[in-house]
Hints:
By secondary structure, the protein is of the alpha/beta class. The protein has 9 helices and 11 strands.
Amino acid sequence: MTKRSVIVFGDLPIATKTVMFLQTLPDVEIGVVVGNEKPHNNDPWQDVPLLADYCAQQGLQRYTMDELTQQFRAGELTLGLSCRFSKIIKEELIDRFQNGIINTHGGLLPEFGGLYSANHTILQNSPVGGGTIHYIDAGIDTGKIIRRCEFPVTKDDTAYTVFQKTQAALLEGLKAVIPEALERRFEGISHEEFVNKGYKTCYYKKGTLEENRIVDLDTMTPEELERHVRAFDFPGYEPAYLLDSNGKKLYLRYHY
Length: 256
């Protein structure tokens, strides 16, 4: 059997776990593109090395995106897997993959495109959280959807727990998708089809999160206050806060 060439784009343990899964499959030749050698790591697998470190341990072939574009012809590579990759993949490189490049987006599409999906999932009081496995195209978070990896959001979930549950759900979804994606390109479902079925569509930029970080005790209900605190409870990042009479920030943390 001819080997299927797969390139994993990533930085974090979810990308490492994806490579580990590929290593269990027959006739798969793995290459790696690392976007960031030392990324900020909040993945749920703290015992799993970063992708750059795992590549060094395993002696895996590393490329830059320019090298892939220069060394391979259109359709010569089998499949690309973008696992929370920190850089934009251009259309010229996408064309090098016969079965396309599949992305793991950290929110449910089309409702939570863009940034900080875990935070916005709680801010919007969504009953479900999750991530989306979709094809990369020339846009941002616009490619056809292969699989929505959903889970229920509980009243005690914070942005951090939603984020961690999302990564685990995406990894399991990716494992389910990869074997078939190696053989063919999925048809996928367009965002428009989801909108026609009643799903909302939204794209969140950085500023749309920051404007919600401050809370107001005079205008918010207790439920709204608690939800905002949970939405910004994420280790390593500024939590929700209120301002005292002197304009000093008073930070708020959520406790179960």
